[in-house]
Amino acid sequence: MIALDKQQANSQDRLKSIDWQPIVRQFEAIVGAKNVVRTREELLAYECDGLTSYKQQPAVVVLPRTTEEVSEIVKVCDRFALPFLARGSGTGLSGGALPLENSVLIVTALMKRILKVDLENQRVVVQPGVINNWVTQAVSGAGFYYAPDPSSQIICSVGGNVAENSGGVHCLKYGVTTNHVLGLKLVLPDGAIVDVGGEIAEMPGYDLTGIFVGSEGTLGIATEITLRILKAAESIHVLLADFENVEAAGATVSGVIGAGIIPGGMEIMDNMSINAVEDTLATGCYPRDAAAILLIEIDGSELEVAENAKRVESICLQNGARNVTTATEVEQRLKLWKGRKAAFAAMGKLSPDYYVQDGVIPRTKLPYVLKEMEALSQKYGYPIANVFHAGDGNLHPLILYNNSIPGALEKVEALGSEILKLCVRVGGSISGEHGIGADKRCYMPEMFSPSDLETMIWVRSCFDPKGIANPTKIFPTPRTCGEAANSQAIHQLDSQFKQIERF
Amino acid sequence: MIALDKQQANSQDRLKSIDWQPIVRQFEAIVGAKNVVRTREELLAYECDGLTSYKQQPAVVVLPRTTEEVSEIVKVCDRFALPFLARGSGTGLSGGALPLENSVLIVTALMKRILKVDLENQRVVVQPGVINNWVTQAVSGAGFYYAPDPSSQIICSVGGNVAENSGGVHCLKYGVTTNHVLGLKLVLPDGAIVDVGGEIAEMPGYDLTGIFVGSEGTLGIATEITLRILKAAESIHVLLADFENVEAAGATVSGVIGAGIIPGGMEIMDNMSINAVEDTLATGCYPRDAAAILLIEIDGSELEVAENAKRVESICLQNGARNVTTATEVEQRLKLWKGRKAAFAAMGKLSPDYYVQDGVIPRTKLPYVLKEMEALSQKYGYPIANVFHAGDGNLHPLILYNNSIPGALEKVEALGSEILKLCVRVGGSISGEHGIGADKRCYMPEMFSPSDLETMIWVRSCFDPKGIANPTKIFPTPRTCGEAANSQAIHQLDSQFKQIERF
Q1: pLDDT tens figures, A309-343
Q2: Is the predicted ipTM greater than 0.95, yes or no?
Q3: What residues of chain B lie within 8 A of the CB of A460, using their CB?
Q4: Do B334 and B307 share a domain, yes or no?
Q5: B214: which chain A residues are within 8 Å (Cβ-Cβ)?
Q6: B20 and B102: one domain?
């Protein structure tokens, strides 16, 4: 498994001339003919994920139902050295589930069983196709919930969340997906079935669960996922504060954290986002003339929430909030959150297309970064709407543009690239929760030295010596990144590329 | 780096006949002659760590001061294929820092600088030899602290904490070491210097920081460690509840967690531990006639703590506590904790020797496991004192014995082994916070299948193809585990052993 089998070395040329008929027959024998998709029309549904600016059909789509079927499918891929990748609901925003040419796409849509609910020990075991929100639905009656809550939680799959280490509004206080996954049953790139982690947090040996979460399908496929569920808070208040400038909202965020209060969530939406949401949903909650609103959710025991809500309100007012309204009842709270959750979709009202960026900055750099982003918006001539997980410094600038204008996407990508470099320059990250996927691999050298990246690629080679598990994702290569700014650093990785550059 | 270089394949025979003089001269050139230890008398200080039942002198001890010096030392080890390992303060309880015969011991005692304190972003960067408690001391004036707090915190090193993924009393609420390490500068087993993670939590790519923490020196040596520090709580109360039986204390623990309260710490000490502590420290705090005491620390804002302390007190009384006393002032609180922190050391009063076990069980299984342990104690004829992190189900049974009686250690080890198997049988773990080291490698097949272990060994091979970084630790081999119960499972790992069995 460790040494790369040179005879299996591959290329697009070989894949182009491959005879898929016998391979498809093997897949049909594993999952049944109706669960193998081959026609061009049907494959259309799988040609991209939530990153719609890239499109590519796979050679074949296979829909397994069990770990054993996934293992058999992957063994076929291994035997023929076929690149493969898994896809959950296809809502990912970095192209992690973007198929490769002549690849096998393993879709988990039929793996939607909740296998075990263990309330006593606060564990739930699910198949990867289970929808994020179903986990909470399955345990909320007993007073529990599953914390990571991407905006897409009513449609995204737990398997996809694991692959991308998804975040969400409540990750400020409770952590991202990796903090809630205790164990995984995995199919490795040679088809072997292994268990990593377990049903308890204190597992000895290497933390392979941790390395797998966020590995974007490059180390194998998770077929059973053991999640930690949390006790629902006794009381929740949501505060909406509105501000005349975004910097004041940013200063409030630092003020709240500085006071030792960690809210369940703390989100900023700027004027453009507010108006997009009100145009679409007409919630009536968000003041259209505010430069920014801050949504702060406080959870805990009744007394604690009442006290902290009062303290947070006064921090908001000290920092210049015009108004602070508090929602204590569930309907009111959901109404306040509804606009935030629909903010991306609402951008469709403002512009035919938008490009969502996902960067992280130290919280304290928020005012500086907002000003710089405004300058970049002016320089490139594209408006930028801002929606962000302010508490953990995770920005989601939405660049509005029209994709039907030739050259627009390239300019917008260049603008997005400048925003990411700005994040790195102030000590942040090129991704907070959407992953690297196909979209950001060329920015990896902004954050990692060649030897740092080389170390990651060693680990990849160790799990996947043939380089068939979602190849070309995460890591930069000279071919995929061309003569980009950092191609010199990328070329230093040369010796490792023979493997990841092949497809 | 990936393929194992067969020509470098090694054996104890080769190491026995090695000429150390030129190697020692190279070490002296790197760190200076006074920082290389070679005499048998001086080496005595390094022949074991906190697991004193195993002893072995290394061939040489080297004391570097910088990352570059560690890298140069490791390059020499790599060139001559010499097994090496790092040692911090030598307080580890699983033999992780137990030298091998003819090995190079790299001691971090001179790497004690706090390199950076960044209060604004709540980060501290330290060298590995920095003492755990120094981190809190460096930031407590500004209202911050470092959460992981092993009982040995006034002497154990942060580097050792990282290697063993150490826990402590406050890990119930705040997590173990891995939850507080953001980034690492590493010297890999070939001497390469790489950075993993960073100064922020949201780093893209594989979570190599996570895999390194707890890898017990088998993947390399951390030479700079970026830690997350937390805001100190506004208010802390410590409750001491005493019970007429241990089961009632256990039921109280489940009651508190079930009420949605997560205390900063929640510890049980049984009657034997209480009396050992009172014999030694005479704190006067712990009632000698109690079957068990429960120490519960509640932290947060003043109102929140006052409220939760009241709720916890009532849960204690509902579950049959005879008395509940509450310490609100810092001296009182420290006095209550002092006995718990000194509990292991106090066992010296009761018995010439003790063997401390470290297992994890699901919280709900506590009453059953305590009864089974009592039965095992009777069966083997050795008393067992119990001190445990009850909130997270992490048991520390202390088996009392006299090592000068021939055969006693073997019997005690057999009893310890039965306790671990009991933990695994109820769905727990063979280690909560002390690591596997040399002590527990033979129990790994109790928790992991051969293919699960094989996956870990692949990862190891990937970082350390020559198998020179702390070899023989963590993983079971036929030689180290002999014909133990699980030797069949161990033998199934055969193909991987060529590497880890060599030394």
Answers
A1: 999 999 999 999 999 999 999 999 999 999 998 88
A2: no
A3: 206
A4: yes
A5: 204-207
A6: yes
